[in-house]
Design a protein that fits this description.
The complex is a heterodimer of chains A (336) and B (889). Chain A is mainly α and 336 residues long. Chain A has 13 helices and no strands. Chain A has helices at residues 2-28, 34-42, 50-64, 70-82, 96-131, 136-150, 153-169, 192-230, 233-241, 245-274, 276-282, 288-297, 301-329. With 889 residues, chain B is mainly alpha-helical. In chain B, 78% of the residues lie in helices and 1% in strands. The two termini of chain B are 38 Å apart. The chains are: A mainly alpha (336), B mainly alpha (889). The interface between A and B is large, with 59 and 43 residues.
């Protein structure tokens, strides 16, 4: 097992190298010069200052490693990474690690809560759908889930904002469902209890928009898998034995659907992490997706690289966890 | 090395029955069976129908919305403009054609004919200027040269002399020409001589200048051309020798000029001309320059005429363009786009687009439309207006005032026209009456009398005359009758028209009557408005009085408060606290003394305080009452204002201005966006973009995925490991991050780039699926048989295994199209996808989002479109899955 993990780790490192190299070469090809943008932003260039700005440009680009071609720049960046230094943001001069640390937790709040919610809700719903197969209640449930699954999350967010919250809730209940940001403006003046409440209020809508699509998908997935399992012979045997229906479904049926479910977890991680880019922009949630979008617009190279690295590491870890869980759930699978 | 089993979406139990399936798949009826199974499911059939509908909408979106023709003719050739759709400025399709003048049309029909026309005009102007310049120069040269008269005189003399001179031949042949070869040409020269003589005679007869000039030049030419190069100088010399000294010089110059002309005409490049010019003496230089100038002028004039023709052709083409496709604007410009419409208006003003074309009347409304406007259902609005008004006024007029005014105008115009017609017919009658002159009448009476007399005499000869006379009389009478008939007809028509006028006048009166009620309503409304205004003013004035009172009272109150404070601060009792020093105690004592003295002098402090407090209470009450009054007044004021607003609204309804204002909104089914463009049109066109992006990007992805997957699955071993590593690698990158980075590399990315990017990032799932299928299928018997038969690998892969592995991949592709559409709209929403003038659902959404969520209709309509597309694709995909994999049900 350890050898497998080690090999896996090596592969992960290699893929990380590749990904970062590809993204680095891409962003160096982007139109627009961050150094020039920064200098022009700080000082307006007049004919007298021209020499000064040129000198400044040189020093700045040297400092950022942008004067060399992208292969050398990449080697420098990667050597910095090995000494746990992701560089300095071009926009405000803060350390990239610091900024990412700041932005990581909001994103994790969203994705992890929604993931937990998905698993908590979809399993009982899927089981119910199999138990109540072809009853009207099951029909309503699955069609509504189907419709929900077909609405993209950001479209759903906009629809909820425009057609429900803006006309029906904001006028009557003053700002009970804030539609942008993570905390209110007067967050610091509140008591800790109020602070938590405020954060929860802000969290509610994004988490809903995050969750419903996955929920619908997982429920459908569990239901279809269960339907296949239910037709198997051993279930019939269990029924013949006179076991109660819940016991059959959970202890005999559901256990066998765990394997594809765990696989799905590994597969859905990238979309869960990167799906945040649009939604975080809609809700102006200060997470990594919004940060990535902004840093691409500002050509903030170290920031883009740092976030890409972060995302890919997250996904790798998620995939690895899924594989390990796979072994845990299914005793037939062994890694050697 | 064993990697974890690759997670495939299909459950593992599939493997067992793969063999059975493959046998059924390899039969021809597999797809038919699948279709039969698919057809049974009603929901998926509905999904398929909606999908087909969407395709139809995408294909015929210009027909539905009317921004672009589906088929158009241009210069007699038919085009499909939607094929030029991928161009960034999507309104302008690209065609490459060569026109009559060899110009390539590299772009849109919108600008090119016009640009070319302008170019041709410029060229023509330039040529004009050139010709003028050259003509001026030539005039200058001609002024310098000897006048035509003198030269013609000289020619005459020359001819005379040469003709009469008998020594001509002797001189020529005796002196200089001895060789036999030249003697052979004697006949020729004789002939020439004869010709000369003949010409001379003619010349004498006709005195024609031109012929003489021509003959001389002809002669000289002959001398040069007919006798070959070698003898030319000799001949010309001999010819010159025949001439007297008087004309020798001029003939020499003529010869010289002839030679120069010959040489000069051969030289065309400026360098040759320069070198030649360098060799000459100044006189001949001038001459040669003159020649060249003339030549240039001829050329330029030719060019000018050509360009004139071209300009005419282009102009005609331009005008025909606009005539044939009143179109051009209607189809090629977005009629809901304010900028475009303004452009077209300018064209109408310039006369490029005829004023009576369909489009000329369209834009008046559009330009003034206020962007952005929400949609407004037509029937509902009318119902609302009418019920609301009818509720307040039972006798609410059915027509608005401007409508009635229009009717009135029409009636009046008709009456006037009828009156004019009557006048003209009356004039005609008079003229006809004038035609019947009294003389003719007298004639007739005379004739009748003679006839009567003739009747009395019964002679045969006279009888004949009598008949003739009778006929004459008949014709005369008929002639007279004709105008009278006309007169009668005209009078009848006049009567009819008068009756018509009466009808019209009745109508007019009806209209006037109808107008009375709204007019009176308007008048009363205005009066009431005036009254309200007065009332408002009165209320305001009334408000002023208590306000002043309030102010004075508040001043009083402030005074009192000050006094109160003062009183409160006054120490009633001396501070009892002991002081440390004696001096302080002394001063305190003195102060006490003073207070006591005051108390003794005036009333007691308490009394004063009581009175003050009483006063204070009364004041308070007064103030309260006043404030109540004020509130009441304000309420009244608000009421008056509200009533006024109502009245104003009614006035708007009555005058029709409100209706007109909303009529523009009714034309946009889904409202307009902030640039004034129709949202419905954009959504219908967006269907096209969405479907294109979905299909093309998934086409690219499936090409790549099928290729890699089949290779990996078929060969196995190292290629398999390499390709699965590649798949893992691409899957490990969050796709949106890669897409964003790729899209940011290009500035203003074109739409095909977006398709390629989505295709590149979404192939691994397809590749993985195909790889799995290939691993299953490659060990089956029929593949082995193929191998044994020695089929090539490509044949095995593409003709035998791939068709059997396609079924699950197709399902995946169907879902992939939905996700590609979703990605496209998401990217457009972020501003990284389709660029602005191209209508895309995502960009419509982002416009709605940027408006601060105020333009709800944008978000609603665009999200409806996105939802429909994705739902249909999901339904169709599910149906396909069930049809292709029958074990699930």
């Amino acid at each position: 097992v350890l050898a497998y993990l080690f090999r896996r780790f090596l592969w992960g490192i290699l893929t990380l190298f590749l990904i970062t190299f590809v993204v680095y070469s891409l962003i160096r090809k982007m139109p627009g010069d961050p150094v020039l943008m920064k200098i022009m932003g700080s000082t307006e260039s007049t004919p007298i200052q021209k020499d000064q700005t040129a000198r400044k440009y040189e020093t700045m680009s040297k400092k950022l490693g942008l004067d060399r071609n992208f292969v050398l720049g990449y080697t420098q960046w990667i050597s910095d990474v090995f000494s746990f230094d992701l560089g300095v943001s071009l926009v405000d001069g803060r350390r990239v690690t610091e900024r990412i640390k700041e932005r990581l937790f909001p994103t994790l709040w969203l994705s992890v809560t929604s993931l937990i919610l998905i698993y908590l809700l979809s399993i009982p719903m899927g089981l119910y759908a199999t138990a109540a197969n072809r009853k009207p209640s099951e029909r309503i449930l699955s069609t509504s889930l189907y419709i929900l699954y077909s609405i993209p999350s950001f479209v759903m967010a906009l629809l909820v904002m425009v057609y429900i919250i803006k006309p029906w809730i904001h006028p009557y209940f003053d700002e009970s469902f804030p539609i942008s940001g993570m905390i209110s403006d007067d967050y610091k003046k509140m008591t800790p209890w109020e602070q938590h409440w405020d954060f929860l209020k802000h969290l509610l809508l994004p988490v809903f928009c995050y969750t419903y699509g996955g929920l619908a998908y997982y429920t459908r997935f569990i239901r279809s898998n269960m339907m296949e399992v239910v037709r198997q012979d051993y279930i019939r045997t269990a029924r013949a034995k006179g076991l109660s229906e819940p016991v059959i479904l959970i202890r005999h049926g559901f256990r066998n659907t765990l394997i594809p479910l765990v696989t799905l977890l590994g597969l859905s991680l990238p979309s869960l992490v990167s799906g945040s880019i649009i939604l975080e922009n809609v809700f102006s949630w200060p997470g990594m997706g919004k940060e990535y979008f902004e840093s691409i617009n500002q050509r903030d190279y170290p920031m883009i690289m740092g976030i890409t690295l972060m995302f890919s590491v997250l996904i790798m870890v998620g995939n690895l966890l899924a594989d390990i869980l796979y072994a845990v759930v299914d005793p037939r699978v062994t890694y050697h | 090395v064993s990697s974890p089993p690759s997670p495939s979406p299909s459950p593992s139990s599939k493997v067992e029955s793969a063999q059975e399936l493959s046998s059924s798949r390899s039969k021809q009826g597999f797809w038919q069976n699948a279709w039969r199974r698919y057809r049974k499911d009603r929901v998926s059939m509905i999904g398929l129908m909606i999908l087909i509908l969407m395709f139809v909408v995408a294909l015929f979106s210009p027909l539905i919305v009317g921004t672009k023709p589906i088929l158009c003719s241009y210069q007699g050739i038919w085009y499909f403009p939607f094929l030029g759709y991928y161009h960034r400025s999507w309104e302008n399709p690209i065609f490459l054609t060569r026109d009559k003048f060899g110009d390539l049309y590299p772009g849109n029909l919108q600008n090119q004919p016009r640009l070319l026309f302008e170019k041709a005009q410029k060229e023509q102007d330039r040529l004009f200027r050139n010709v003028e310049r050259l003509q001026k120069k030539i005039k200058q040269f001609e002024e310098k040269r000897p006048s035509e008269k003198s030269s013609s005189l000289f020619l005459e003399n020359l001819l005379l002399e040469s003709g009469s001179n008998s020594t001509y031949q002797k001189n020529v042949f005796g002196k200089t020409l001895k060789s036999n070869e030249i003697l052979q040409t004697l006949d020729e020269i004789e002939r020439l001589d004869k010709e000369l003589a003949l010409l001379l005679q003619e010349r004498k007869k006709k005195q024609n200048k031109k012929t003489s000039e021509e003959t001389l030049t002809l002669l000289l030419q002959r001398i040069h051309t007919d006798f070959g190069q070698r003898y030319r100088p000799l001949l010309s010399e001999a010819f010159l020798n025949t001439l007297s000294d008087k004309y020798k010089g001029e003939a020499l110059t003529l010869l010289k000029e002839k030679q120069l002309q010959e040489i000069a005409e051969r030289l065309e490049t400026p360098e040759d001309r320069k070198t030649f010019n360098y060799l000459l003496n100044p006189e001949s230089k001038e001459f040669v320059e003159y020649l060249w100038l003339k030549k240039d002028l001829e050329k330029q004039i030719q060019l000018l005429e050509d360009s004139k023709e071209e300009v005419q052709w282009r102009q005609r083409e331009l005008s025909e363009n606009y005539k044939n496709w009143a179109i051009y604007p209607l189809f090629f410009a977005d009629p809901y786009n304010k900028i475009e419409v303004e452009k077209i208006q300018k064209m109408v003003e310039q006369g490029i687009i005829p004023k009576n074309s369909r489009f000329a009347s369209l834009k008046e409304i559009q330009v003034n439309s206020p962007p952005p406007t929400p949609p407004l259902p037509l029937g509902l609005y009318q119902y609302w207006v009418k019920t609301r008004c009818a509720f307040r006024y039972p006798q609410w007029p059915t027509h608005t005032l401007p409508e009635l005014d229009l009717k009135l105008q029409k009636e009046q115009e008709q009456i006037e026209a009828l009156k004019k017609e009557i006048q003209s017919s009356q004039e005609k009658i008079q003229s006809l009456k004038n035609r019947i002159s009294p003389e003719e009448k007298a004639k007739i009476t005379q004739l009748e009398e003679t006839l009567k007399t003739l009747e009395a005499q019964k002679d045969s000869r006279i009888r004949r005359n009598f008949k003739a006379l009778q006929q004459h009389l008949k014709t005369l009478k008929q002639q007279q009758e004709l105008p009278t008939k006309e007169i009668l007809a005209l009078e009848n028509s006049i009567l009819k028209k008068q009756s018509q006028i009466e009808i019209h006048q009745k109508n007019l009166q009806e209209v006037l009557n109808a107008k009375k009620t709204p007019q009176s309503l308007l008048d009363t409304l205005e009066e009431r408005l005036r009254q309200k205004e007065e009332k408002r003013k009165a209320v305001q004035e009334q408000l002023l009085v208590p306000q002043e009172a309030l102010r004075s009272l508040s001043e009083k109150r402030a005074n009192l408060e000050e006094r109160f404070k003062h009183l409160k601060n006054l120490p009633l009792y001396s501070p009892s606290s002991s002081s440390s020093s004696v001096t302080e105690g002394l001063t305190q004592l003195e102060k006490e003394m003073q207070h006591l003295q005051k108390q003794v002098q005036g009333r007691s402090l308490k009394e004063e305080q009581d009175s003050l407090s009483q006063e204070w209470n009364t004041l308070k009450q007064q103030i309260k009452a006043l404030e109540n009054d004020k509130e009441a007044f304000q309420k009244q004021f608000a009421l008056v204002e509200k009533e006024k607003e109502d009245l104003l609204y009614q006035k708007e309804v009555l005058t029709g201005s409100l209706f007109l204002k909303h009529q523009q909104r009714l034309q946009h089914l889904f409202g307009t966006d902030k640039y004034g463009r129709d949202v419905f049109a954009r959504i219908v066109h967006g269907t096209r973009i969405a479907l294109l992006v979905g299909f093309v990007s998934m086409g690219i992805a499936s090409l790549i995925g099928l290729f890699f997957g089949s290779i990996a699955g078929f060969f196995g071993g190292k290629t398999d490991i390499f390709i699965s590593r590649l798949i893992d690698f691409v899957m490990a990158v969050p796709s949106l991050i890669l897409i964003l980075a790729l899209m940011a590399v290009v500035q203003n990315p074109p739409i095909w780039y977006l398709m390629v990017v989505i295709g590149i990032t979404s192939w691994p799932s397809i590749a993985r699926l195909t790889r799995g299928e290939f691993l299953k299928l490659r060990n089956l018997d029929y593949v082995m048989a193929g191998k044994a038969l020695g089929f090539s690998n490509s044949r095995l892969i593409f003709r035998h295994i791939l068709p059997n592995a396609l079924a699950p991949v197709i399902v995946n592709i169907t879902f992939g199209i939905a996700s590609a559409i979703l990605t496209e709209s998401g990217l457009s929403f972020l501003g990284f996808g389709v660029q602005e003038p191209v209508p895309s659902w995502g960009s419509i959404l982002s416009l709605g989002f940027q408006s601060g969520l105020n333009d709800y209709w944008l978000i609603g309509s665009a999200s409806f479109a996105i939802f429909t597309a994705i739902v249909t694709y999901n339904i169709v995909g599910d149906g396909l899955q069930e049809a292709l994999d029958p074990r699930l049900k």
